[in-house]
Please model this.
Amino acid sequence: MKFRVERDVLADAVTWAARALPSRPPVPVLAGLLLEADPEGVLRLSSFDYEVSARVEVPAEVSDGGTVLVSGKLLADISRSLPGKPVDVSTDGSRVSLTCGASRFTLLTMPVDEYPTLPTMPEGTGAIAGDVFTHAVAQVTIAASRDETLPILTGVRMEIEGDVVTLLATDRYRLAMRTLPWRPSTPGVSTVALVRARTLSEVSKALGAAGDVNLALSTGGSTELIGFEAAGRRTTSLLVDGEYPKVRSLFPAESPTHAVVDTHALVEAVRRVALVAERNTPVRLGFTDGVVTLEAGQGEDAQASEAVECTLTGEEISIAFNPQFLLDGLGALTTPFARLSFTQAQKPAVISGQAEADGDDDETYRYLIMPVRLAG
Model:
């Protein structure tokens, strides 16, 4: 095998493919990156850990076609450190030589015949605008659980109904839901998939800037897969197995009380007041007509309070939240105003965004947060 490729092209491709490398490979070959040089002028790089696969195609000047398997982490470290010149790669027996300007590296190869076959990309289901997809995933994955003992809750539930995709995630203390438009390949498509939040987050960040992201789903068979593809990059992931809890019903049908606050002002106030909040100590919010008062700390501890203007509709209410959970929800908004909707002080509140102080809230994104019960 012998080919030449631009340094930045190689570094980007290796970084993309290496993202699926397992930190503790169950078999040594899974630590490898598969390089396939096609005489047609294409270099393919692939990785696989039995759950997630990544593959990328880039242009290259291929003199001799061939396939080789090398240490993915080592190749990633080397490609990032190379000078900005073309990179020549060739094989010599059981070694791969990599030359870039005055830099030369020699890597040992791994047995290609022991490398598992990558899963086939499922048939295309539809396409989503990359920037919208990236933002929506970021808004929802903040609420996904990181507790691996509850694997179901580490996933994001993706509900596809016609030309609308709904993303849902919860860790039992908060729940995020985002609806977004997409272009299905088949009109009237209806399906559900549970995707690991970490995988979805990484993919959306890596592919979001590439324009449209093509989505491919394979459900109901022996192997349930989801695939994403954009700009010559593709990745597949096994779906999380299990029944996701019916969380949509947690959103209240109506909220008799709601407050509208400047998003930035409220975020900054919560951050300041939370400085005195010990670990797992809530921030208390008292809503009255015209102002919300934030307080943290009590008794012999350090204390803080701050007042922020707000517009209250309904009865006055006092409620307390985990400050980080509150900041996560407010930080996911892109609107100048935040609406906090309440039923009772002991019941979950819903955060949504508003473009104008006296307008309607935007229900494409809703973040439900459990209150913290206060002693006494």
